[in-house]
Specification:
NHL repeats lie at residues 182-225. The protein is mainly beta and 370 residues long. It has 2 helices and 24 strands.
Length: 370
């Protein structure tokens, strides 16, 4: 029996139990006590209204691979990130001729190859959603070791560079950042420093989160102007992260879901976009034997798509996750070394990138959500 069928069966059984209890109470003329709720209790009830409620299987889309996409072959470097612009175009961020290996950083996380300068080629390409052909590109002579990229609802590009230890906000095709977090080539753990930041998630409110990253294993939350609001985790919050590699927001549920790579799980603490109530409470945690090291996450309504990477003998594939029931409810795809993923604005397509050693293994896949 599949995971989706099992979840549906459990929901059916739970409904039957509830109906039986209701009938017994009516037969005995018993009514459950109706106690007035104070304001805080109402808020708590609203905050937790989604807890442990499985998503109906029929409402969960299954990613289906689009064969022969893109229709023409590209010669990308390691494609470390993909996002989708407001026009529905997939956009990739790649390293061109740069590779991250044992000689890239020293023991203090200082980038060894500063003297080589930034990547001379364009590092960002906008692709046609139907054919995968390159429509435009930019980002030459700007970045040293690309990693994460997110495009917000206004079309702004949010980018992380692990060599520079910085996160940036750009207008499309901009040469100067609108906002910079972190100190150039200076790794650190203070609130003014980053160390190999991996990913950024941006809320419709303008608040944004930075996954920081390979060294600090923390999430930093900022307001729209770049003022630090919160660090995740922070005392007395009990949440130990180990390489938060990607993050995504489920704004309807007020959750921030994290690909906690080396802990081989997805964790979803409260984002605190609606209110600070619930911040620091135990995070929803999805950790099952076949999940492995999670590299990418992307939200779709109230569910999360995820991809793992090479982990011992586990299959490398995609997962559909329900954070409300803390369960994997679907498997899909077949990959070698996936690194990032993104869902289109209208929810019709899912894109997954892979990194490798040549243009045949550095690529982007398109799935339709059927």
């Amino acid at each position: 029996m599949s995971c989706i069928h099992l979840v549906a069966l459990l929901a059916l059984c739970l409904g039957a139990v509830r109906a039986l209890i209701k009938r017994r109470m009516q037969q005995k003329d018993l009514q459950p006590p109706q106690l007035p709720l104070v304001d805080d209790e109402v808020a708590l009830q609203n905050q937790r209204s989604y807890d442990n409620v499985p998503i109906p299987a029929a409402s969960v889309p299954t990613p289906v691979l689009v064969e022969n996409w893109p229709t023409e072959q590209h010669s990308f470097g390691q494609v470390t990130a993909v996002s989708v612009d407001p026009q529905g175009n997939p956009v990739i961020f790649h390293r061109a001729d740069r590779y991250w290996d044992v000689n890239t950083f020293n023991e203090s996380n200082i980038y060894y190859l500063i003297e080589y300068g930034p990547i001379k080629e364009k590092t960002i390409y906008v692709l046609d959603s139907k054919t995968g052909a390159i429509k435009s590109g930019w980002g030459s002579n700007m970045f040293y070791m690309p990693h994460g990229m997110t495009i917000d609802i206004h079309g702004n590009y949010w980018i992380t560079d692990v060599a520079m230890h910085q996160a940036f906000k750009f207008k499309p095709f901009g040469s100067k950042p609108l906002l910079t977090i972190g100190k150039r080539f200076r790794p650190g753990s203070s609130v003014k420093h980053l160390c190999k930041p991996t990913s950024i998630a941006v809320a419709t409110t303008g608040e944004f989160f930075i996954a920081d990253g390979y060294c600090n294993s923390r999430i930093l939350k900022f307001n729209a102007a770049g003022k630090l609001l919160r660090t995740i985790p922070q005392p007395p919050e009990f949440l130990s992260l180990q390489v938060p590699h990607a993050i995504t927001l489920l704004e309807h549920l007020d959750l921030l879901c994290i690909a906690d790579r080396e802990n081989m799980r997805v964790v979803c603490p409260k984002a605190g976009l609606k209110s600070s109530h619930g911040e620091g409470e135990p995070a929803a945690t999805i950790q099952e034997p076949d999940l492995g090291r999670v590299f990418g996450v992307a939200s779709y309504g109230d569910i999360v798509f995820a991809v793992n990477g090479p982990t011992s003998m586990l299959p490398v594939c995609g997962f559909t996750i329900d954070p409300r029931s803390e369960a994997i409810i679907g498997h899909w795809g077949d990959f070698k070394n996936p690194h990032s993923m993104a869902v289109s604005v209208n929810g019709s397509a899912l894109y997954v990138t892979e990194i490798g050693t040549n243009h045949q293994t550095n690529r982007v896949w398109k799935y339709v959500l059927a």
